[in-house]
Amino acid sequence: MTQTPNAAASGTFLIGGDIPVHRLAYGAMRITGPGIWGDPKDRRAALATLRRLPELGVNFIDTADSYGPFVSEDLIREALHPYPGMLVATKGGLLRHGPDKWVPLADPGYLRQCVLLSLRRLGVERIDLWQLHRLDHGDARQAQLQVIADMRQEGLIRHVGLSEVRPADIEEAQRYFPVATVQNQYNLGERKSEAVLDYCTQHGIGFIPWYPLNAGKLAHPGSVLDTIAQAHGVTPSAIALAWLLKRSPVMLPIPGTSSPEHLAQNVAAAQVRLSDHEFETLGKQAV
Ligand SMILES: NC(=O)c1ccc[n+]([C@@H]2O[C@H](COP(=O)([O-])OP(=O)(O)OC[C@H]3O[C@@H](n4cnc5c(N)ncnc54)[C@H](OP(=O)(O)O)[C@@H]3O)[C@@H](O)[C@H]2O)c1
Asked: Is 90 near ligand 1, meaning CB less than 6 Å away?
């Protein structure tokens, strides 16, 4: 593919019914250090990757206060504030105790602090999409959902998303606030969330698949993706993302990268139109 790719070709989805974003988006977890801890090895490349986003039509970024922690939100602000025409979605609800260590904390006071500090770091007065990183499965759940509803009423948050949930969880949360998006692990090789995806499709809830490239495994040559990638003149990563985009109109993939070159390869997925045969072939293969 020789022309500059543009995420606009992936189509538009309305977050919460009122914020338009291009469906092919970007995950900002990889612009941190190893174990998603500390600064990235190449800070200039991380900033260059972020600055490339608007040039490639990507106007939806997924981050979290726990990425770094704080590093991802800080870099996004440095590169892109005040985010003209973009939606920066963040998350809260996890403590960090070191590289690769993630500890959920449902305490309402902590969740309120997460939101207030994300507002300050991102330099905004309201977070357009704030996602609860992990829903509590014990006694703290009601208080957890209530404080989110309160923060929405107070105008600190515009829309709410959940992560790693089932349809029953979504329905319970809907008693407190409308659920705008769901972020679960999902990609060609990992599809335990099919039923959740179908539920979101049916109800017009945005579905944000994390690990859309299976943490990079679907980006490497040597898989069944290769042949189809060559036929379309794109990389295997673009085929994995094009398959996701075709799977559902509510699908909002957030491939992560710290490289401007990989970013452009991934955005090329927006222009790929897989045939029904290619879509089915890919879906049947264990990749
Ligand atoms: N809700 C949750 O619990 C949760 C959990 C995990 C992640 N997330 C979100 O989901 C996003 C996506 O997940 P992810 O970043 O972990 O995994 P991913 O998007 O499946 O894969 C990212 C990996 O693939 C590599 N990659 C990307 N494009 C490539 C290309 N064109 N060619 C070769 N390698 C490529 C990246 O390395 P390079 O940097 O070298 O390109 C990186 O190591 C995250 O950024 C984060 O926003 C959410």
From this structure: no
